[in-house]
């Protein structure tokens, strides 16, 4: 009886281990590469040369640009922006938690 119980626990342990490995593989496959996303976002903003200054406020990313007309707003929204507001040479982009990370990334580029 003791041998059967130990075998059951061993089988359950192996099954749980396999499920955890599968879950981690799925998470890794579906997780977006943040570095590539930030590169694309800078590119869609017209490149680092087009960016004059940046600010963040909670989930909003405010960027002052040299030329707003070269910004690809559609592509920025496809990357996950929830909204974009253009005022003169500024864009206010609602990004969520990524706004602070984007500001640090752009500051490091300059």
Verbal overview:
- With 110 residues, the protein is α+β, with helices and mostly antiparallel strands.
- The chain has two domains: 1-31; 34-109, Glucose permease domain IIB (Gyrase A, domain 2).
- It has four helices and four strands; from the N terminus they run ααββαββα.
- The protein has helices at residues 2-30, 34-44, 73-78, 98-109; strands at residues 51-57, 60-65, 83-87, 90-94.
- It has a four-stranded antiparallel beta sheet, with helices on one face.
- A hairpin with a 2-residue loop joins β1 (51-57) and β2.
- The chain is rod-shaped.
- The chain starts with a helix and ends with a helix.
- The mean pLDDT is 84.
Quick synopsis:
The protein is of the alpha+beta class and 110 residues long. It contains four helices and four strands.
Helix content: 40-55%
**CATH architect. name of the largest domain:** 2-Layer Sandwich
Per the principal axes of the C-alpha atoms, what is the gross shape?
Answer: rod-shaped
Oligomer: single chain
The total beta strand count reads: 4
Rg, please?
Answer: 22 Å
Strand and helix layout:
Blueprint: H1 2-30, H2 34-44, E1 51-57, E2 60-65, H3 73-78, E3 83-87, E4 90-94, H4 98-109
Antiparallel strand pairs: 1-2, 2-4, 3-4
Characteristic key phrases:
single chain, 110 residues, alpha+beta, Gyrase A, domain 2, 2 domains, 4-stranded antiparallel sheet, 4 helices, rod-shaped
């Amino acid at each position: 009886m003791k041998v059967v119980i130990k075998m059951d626990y061993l089988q359950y342990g192996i099954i749980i281990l396999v499920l955890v490995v599968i879950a981690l593989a799925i998470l890794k496959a579906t997780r977006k590469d943040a570095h590539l996303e930030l590169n694309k976002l800078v590119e869609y903003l017209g490149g680092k040369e087009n960016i004059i200054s940046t600010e963040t406020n909670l989930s909003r990313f405010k960027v002052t640009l040299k030329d707003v007309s070269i910004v690809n707003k559609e592509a920025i929204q496809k990357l996950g922006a929830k909204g974009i507001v253009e005022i003169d040479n500024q864009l206010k982009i609602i990004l969520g938690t990524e706004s602070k990370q984007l500001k640090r990334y752009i500051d490091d580029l300059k």
